[in-house]
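Batch manifest, entry 17 of 40.
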Amino acid sequence: MQPSIRFVIPYFGSWPFWMAFYLESCRRNPTIEWLFFTDCGIPDNPPDNVRFIEMSYRAYCELVSARLGIDFYPERPYKLCDIKPALGYIHADQLGEVDFWAFGDIDVIYGDLRGYFTAERLATKDLFATHHRRISGHLCLVRNTVIMREAFMRIPQWRERYADPAHQALDEGAFSRLFIRHKNWPESLRLFAARFNAWSRRSEFIESHSTFTILANGQRVLPQKWFLRDGRLTNSELSGVELPYLHFLAWKNQSWKELTADSLRGPDGLAFSANWDVSQIGWRDAEL
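Output type: structure tokens
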């Protein structure tokens, strides 16, 4: 039996131009659920496995403040990144008997998540990060237990740091250090030390090549293109190796800034196609 997985994603402002591509990638993972807290409105024809709870940003900050016992009223929603490790605790009543809760971003496209997070794999650990030496804020799975929902409370001065309106990258920084210490040590020495850290033993840190591809020689490269073929994601650097998801942060922050949303979305209806290519010029029909 497959363990149940539910993403919890607060998102406020307006939906990005690629939202249809994102939602279709959720639809292609029907046994996984997504729960959004948002003021962006409900998109047209959302997948059955994606639910939206509508509320204002102010109301959401009040909810967080009440659950954490702090004053959480940052002006910019970007601060929400810091509380990702606490989302399982904040929204415990929305998780019920779910086996795993997850946090993430929406500048991603999912491939076959179940093909990557198999039942056998999920049985082995309590936290699954998709980078080699740090928590990946764009996708992280956490077992839905009290100890893991409250793990964020081990971040030093977490109350003060959450209440501080300045973004501190706590999801990928301080939270990572609970599970993976001495990340800059030589690999063999770091892994030896990890054997004595109970939090490390219950976590998995494996590079999924979602943002950059890490080659065998350690070189970090940005693939020229990614390919969707019937729900399976690959890229131009790994010779057909299937990957769990694409995180297009680099394109979004660089080449896409010079292009229009209409040109980046490609032909009408492409988001609903089973096959497409995406690159620094956006989405295009698949070159089959």
